[in-house]
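Protocol step 4 of 5: obtain the predicted structure for the target chain.
Materials: sequence only (see below). No template structures provided, no constraints applied. The aim of this step is simply to have a reference model before the mutagenesis design in step 5. Sequence pasted as it appears in the construct record:
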Amino acid sequence: MNSSSPDHDPVPNGSLPASSADLAQRTSASRSIARIVEPRTLPVRALEDRRLIHQDGSGREQADAFREIRTRLLSLGGVSNFVTLVAPISHGSGGSFVARNLAAAFAFDEAKTALLLDCDARHPSQHTALGVDPVNGGMIDYLEHPSLGVEKILYHTGIPRLRLMPVGRQREMSAEYFSSFRMRAVLDSLRSRYSDRYLFLDGPAVNNSPDSRILSDLVDFVVLVVGYGRDTPQAIAKAIANFDPAKLAGVVFNHAP
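Step 4 output (structure tokens):
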């Protein structure tokens, strides 16, 4: 898998004196991570069956590719956590594959947690890929009925420090949910509650729906996924034009479906 990124001014990596607020934030983050208990950590074989990266020797090359994307995003985001939209150019380009493995790469870092939100209302796949039974519903169910409670729709994945929020019951018209004030409030709440939490939105194909463009208004960064040998240069250029250049973190050329 190859990746490319537009020019951005990286955040300096020099050491700065830590303020009392910084120290308090880091302490709070450490405590939130320490409270996380994963009831069923998946073995390497199960991770491979679900096409998830792992840190075993046999999967190191693919894991390193996602770590490189993680490093680029962190250089853009600086010291604050952020929300990233992962959107494929076309359906079947492997956007969901990239989204969950990028989230897993962040979860590899023991000082960070990751939350993957399935925002592809027409083709939800993350709960199946991760072997999660969304018995309590998902995001759209919560947006319709806030009394459901967010904590009930955050599911364990078998990967330490990685949670999933599935999309919930399928809807044909999802744009109205994603453009709602409540959706923005949910994302702000999920990010601000824990300073170590990084959010990843698995968005629908850019060329089939306006949903990814709508979702991009709610995020800090956008990563576009190109199906290698599938999406034409013209389709890529057209997709890129949908997004704010300041938010476009890069394009990932993906070989996996």
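Step 4 remarks: The CA atoms of residues 79 and 92 lie 34 Å apart. The radius of gyration is 17 Å.
Proceed to step 5.
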